[in-house]
């Protein structure tokens, strides 16, 4: 490494974490041209990418040093005493990002979803979290040495090829039925509808996916969809509640309700983000939401049985070292709340919590919770698995003010 590289490397250490991401982005864009003259720029961009995504810089800024608690998918942490456990919890979530060099999707020419697949990746993260809850439990944690067969089976469902049940390939082709061509940007409601159709092909988990439309959660219809006919059984519930909480900006009256959702043990977080820039939100601290960002492009690959060095590295690429934060006011008003209930008892508890904490305790509730379908909606019950009228919500295309995307450089 030259003296100039060392000087710039040391200078970059002093930059805020977000600025370093911008620097990586700029270097990535101009690298193919500038490296002809300045060959060392290529190595420099690799160095900054490594420091940015692998946490080699002095102190990551994932969580502030504060006395306020951090809530992450129903669990409470303190950054003063539980920081290591908190980061382990974040790292244990499956992180779905853009991928490149996979087999083309159907008859399209797409071999990467960079620039359009972020909301689909967020939907995958919700599904992955539901699968982990079902088979491994909320307290399960991942380590680089993890090779549990159940975990590897879950991960294989999301590989980027047409034979994987929850792959981007199948999801994007099902999206065509929802009016989205391959390569188009999705909104939270459309992704929820795609997942509702997708789980039909998954015999292993037998999920009941309900999409509560028109801001109404109909309790008896959801429970009925989960009860196994003729048996005293329960199909695990994956509940999406798509909402529009403002016109172009999030209405602050809803912040309190969203925070309460993150505290519920049944919470799978929410999917949303900035306009045309989707993220998976998994918690909050103070007045900031904590999220995983899919806008990193990585090489497609298979983990298989995690027997080779390449498979081990591919497994690592599904886990993010550090979460990110943004103020609540930066959230796009179109989002979908996500919940998982593995048993009927968990579902009854969720309904009680919603009634007490989100309906009775809030002046402006996020949604309605009703025991049965209202009379005025009884002619609109044709859509199986969707509580409420089949109303197309937000899938809008507002111009993003911050559409940066990053790529892990090889």
TrEMBL record:
<keyword id="KW-0963">Cytoplasm</keyword>
<dbReference type="GO" id="GO:0016485">
    <property type="term" value="P:protein processing"/>
</dbReference>
<comment type="similarity">
    <text>Belongs to the peptidase C54 family.</text>
</comment>
<keyword id="KW-0472">Membrane</keyword>
<dbReference type="GO" id="GO:0000045">
    <property type="term" value="P:autophagosome assembly"/>
</dbReference>
<dbReference type="GO" id="GO:0034727">
    <property type="term" value="P:piecemeal microautophagy of the nucleus"/>
</dbReference>
<dbReference type="GO" id="GO:0015031">
    <property type="term" value="P:protein transport"/>
</dbReference>
<dbReference type="GO" id="GO:0019786">
    <property type="term" value="F:protein-phosphatidylethanolamide deconjugating activity"/>
</dbReference>
<keyword id="KW-0645">Protease</keyword>
<dbReference type="InterPro" id="IPR005078">
    <property type="entry name" value="Peptidase_C54"/>
</dbReference>
<feature type="domain" description="Peptidase C54 catalytic">
    <location>
        <begin position="85"/>
        <end position="353"/>
    </location>
</feature>
<dbReference type="InterPro" id="IPR038765">
    <property type="entry name" value="Papain-like_cys_pep_sf"/>
</dbReference>
<keyword id="KW-0813">Transport</keyword>
<keyword id="KW-0653">Protein transport</keyword>
<dbReference type="GO" id="GO:0005737">
    <property type="term" value="C:cytoplasm"/>
</dbReference>
<keyword id="KW-1133">Transmembrane helix</keyword>
<comment type="function">
    <text>Cysteine protease that plays a key role in autophagy by mediating both proteolytic activation and delipidation of ATG8 family proteins.</text>
</comment>
<dbReference type="GO" id="GO:0004197">
    <property type="term" value="F:cysteine-type endopeptidase activity"/>
</dbReference>
<dbReference type="InterPro" id="IPR046792">
    <property type="entry name" value="Peptidase_C54_cat"/>
</dbReference>
<dbReference type="Pfam" id="PF03416">
    <property type="entry name" value="Peptidase_C54"/>
</dbReference>
<keyword id="KW-0788">Thiol protease</keyword>
<keyword id="KW-0072">Autophagy</keyword>
<feature type="transmembrane region" description="Helical">
    <location>
        <begin position="21"/>
        <end position="41"/>
    </location>
</feature>
<keyword id="KW-0378">Hydrolase</keyword>
<dbReference type="GO" id="GO:0035973">
    <property type="term" value="P:aggrephagy"/>
</dbReference>
<keyword id="KW-0812">Transmembrane</keyword>
<dbReference type="GO" id="GO:0000423">
    <property type="term" value="P:mitophagy"/>
</dbReference>
<protein>
    <recommendedName>
        <fullName>Cysteine protease</fullName>
        <ecNumber>3.4.22.-</ecNumber>
    </recommendedName>
</protein>
């Amino acid at each position: 490494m030259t003296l100039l590289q060392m000087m710039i490397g040391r200078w970059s250490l002093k930059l805020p974490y977000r600025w370093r991401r911008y620097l990586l982005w700029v270097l990535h864009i101009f690298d193919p041209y500038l490296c002809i003259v300045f060959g060392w720029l290529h190595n420099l961009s690799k160095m900054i990418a490594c420091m940015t995504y692998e946490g080699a810089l002095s102190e990551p800024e994932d969580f502030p040093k504060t006395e306020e608690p951090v809530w992450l998918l129903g669990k409470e942490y303190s950054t003063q005493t539980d920081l290591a456990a908190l980061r382990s919890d974040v790292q244990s979530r499956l992180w779905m990002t853009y991928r490149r060099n996979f087999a083309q999707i159907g008859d399209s020419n797409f071999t990467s979803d960079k620039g359009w697949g972020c909301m689909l990746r967020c939907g995958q993260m919700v599904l992955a979290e539901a699968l982990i809850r079902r088979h491994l439990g909320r307290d399960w944690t991942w380590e680089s040495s993890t090779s549990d067969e159940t975990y590897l089976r879950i991960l294989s469902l999301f590989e980027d090829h047409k034979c994987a049940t929850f792959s981007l390939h199948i999801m994007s082709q099902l999206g065509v039925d929802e009016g989205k061509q391959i390569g188009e940007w999705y909104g939270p409601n459309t992704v929820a509808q795609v997942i509702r159709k997708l789980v039909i092909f998954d015999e292993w988990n037998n999920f009941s996916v309900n999409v509560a439309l028109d801001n109404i959660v109909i309790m008896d219809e959801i429970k009925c969809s989960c009860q196994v006919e003729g048996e005293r059984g329960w199909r695990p519930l994956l509940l999406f509640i798509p909402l529009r909480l403002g016109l172009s900006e999030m209405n602050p009256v809803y912040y309190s309700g969203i925070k309460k959702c993150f505290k519920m043990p049944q919470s799978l977080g929410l999917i949303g983000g900035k306009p045309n820039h989707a993220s998976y939100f998994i918690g909050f601290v103070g007045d900031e939401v904590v999220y995983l960002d899919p806008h990193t492009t990585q090489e497609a690959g298979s983990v298989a049985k995690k027997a080779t060095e390449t498979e081990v590295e591919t497994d690592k690429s599904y886990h993010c070292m550090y979460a990110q934060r943004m103020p609540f006011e930066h959230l796009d008003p179109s989002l979908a709340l996500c919940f998982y209930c593995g048993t009927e008892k968990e579902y009854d508890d969720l309904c009680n919590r919603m009634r007490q904490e989100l309906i009775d305790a809030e002046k402006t509730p996020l949604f309605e919770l009703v025991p049965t379908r209202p009379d005025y909606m009884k002619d609109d019950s044709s859509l199986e698995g969707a509580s409420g009228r089949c109303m197309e919500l937000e899938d809008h295309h507002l111009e993003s003010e911050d559409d940066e995307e990053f790529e892990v450089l090889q």
